[in-house]
Design a protein that fits this description.
The protein is α/β, with parallel strands linked by helices. The protein folds into two domains: about 220 residues, D-Maltodextrin-Binding Protein, domain 2; about 90 residues, D-Maltodextrin-Binding Protein, domain 2. About 45% of the residues lie in helices and about 20% in strands. The strands form two sheets. A six-stranded mixed beta sheet has the order 1-3-2-4-11-5. Strands 8-7-9-6-10 form a five-stranded mixed beta sheet, with helices on both faces. Strand 7, helix 6 and strand 8 form a beta-alpha-beta unit. The radius of gyration is 19 Å and the shape is globular. About 50% of the residues are buried.
């Protein structure tokens, strides 16, 4: 993708999320793209680290742009519009399998943040056979995860009527309008959905699929060559931000509330405190090899990935080990 083409696409589909930072000539610049706009709370650790001044302390100036979709984030990296990006593991693996020269720098949020919500006449995951189920897109991580959860519960995912509906808010609208019987939402969306009397949660991906990799920070080869030291500093400072937030979830939630002003503050606080209680984040930033193998095998099973990807070829273990 040409630079001007990416910029044209991003202008209509992206939102620049403002975050305070001290600009100085002595700070090394690191440009980061973050999938979802506004950013989902499971990616807020970048802003936690920034507001605590950890990036500045590490000698780097981090610029964050929030992007609507994983594919746009990956395309932006390939087009040279950023040094690294936070995106779903599935999209990253697909890009790597297709030949994109991307590597995994770190993975501070490796665990899934999905809840399956359904009408109360759906007893459980196994009962979804022949029922319409809303996902963001066929083949997307929301689809893959939902299929795995249904099969783990003993159901037949091939019999489910999978519908590509789009964003979480669109999926919830379809569920409330009874156009579908179930959908998969992130934690914040699920908290709001479960206030509706006729809806209930029938599956929690964090508990049921603990080995499926959800997100990570992917980096371009050009950035690795040009900015190795700033990227090491970025990894260390982000790890510091994760540790701070998990020790201080109430204060972290106040930062998150600025990023999601249209979401009730109590909902965000509940989610961030739940993250802390469940040890949702991994401050080491190192994805586990067993989780990598499980995710690759799961994606290949459903045809979302066409070939095996080697952990040692793509995971830059030295960055996480230095945090």
């Amino acid at each position: 993708m040409k630079r001007r083409d990416f910029l044209k696409a991003a202008t209509g589909a992206a939102m620049l999320v403002a975050a305070p930072a001290v600009r100085a000539q002595s700070l090394s610049k690191v440009n980061l793209l973050v999938t979802t706009s506004p950013p989902d709370p499971n990616a807020h650790y970048f802003w936690w680290a920034m507001e605590q001044g950890y990036y500045r302390d590490a000698g780097i100036d981090v610029s964050i742009r929030s992007i609507v979709s994983d594919t746009t984030t990956v395309r932006g990296l390939v087009a040279g519009e950023a040094d690294l990006g936070w995106a779903g593991a599935g999209s990253g693996m697909q890009a790597m399998a297709a030949g994109s020269k991307l590597k995994i720098l770190t993975s501070f949020g490796p665990r899934l943040d999905f809840v399956v919500v359904a009408n109360k006449d759906v007893a459980g995951l196994k009962a979804l056979a022949n029922r319409p189920f809303a996902v963001s897109q066929i083949g997307a991580v929301s689809n893959t995860v939902a299929r795995l959860m249904i099969e783990r519960a003993g159901g037949d995912s091939s019999s489910v009527q999978w519908l590509s509906v789009g964003s979480g808010s669109s999926r919830l609208q379809a569920l409330n309008a009874k156009r579908v019987d179930a959908t998969i939402l992130n934690s914040v969306q699920a908290v709001a959905a479960l206030r509706t009397p006729n809806l209930h949660a029938i599956g929690d991906a964090l508990k049921e699929l603990p080995n499926f990799l959800y997100s990570w920070e992917i980096v371009t080869q050009d950035a690795l060559k040009a900015k190795a030291e700033p990227l090491k500093a970025f990894a260390a400072a982000t790890s510091r931000g994760v540790r701070w937030a998990m020790a201080n979830p109430g204060d972290a939630a106040k930062i998150s509330q600025k990023l999601m002003p249209n979401i009730p503050a109590d909902d965000i606080t509940h989610v961030v405190k739940t993250y802390a209680a469940n040890h949702y984040f991994d401050p080491s930033g190192l994805p586990r090899r067993a989780d990598w193998d499980y995710t690759v095998d799961a994606m290949m099973k459903y045809g979302d990935l066409k070939k095996k990807l080697g952990y040692d070829e793509f995971v830059l273990q030295e960055f996480a080990q230095n945090t």
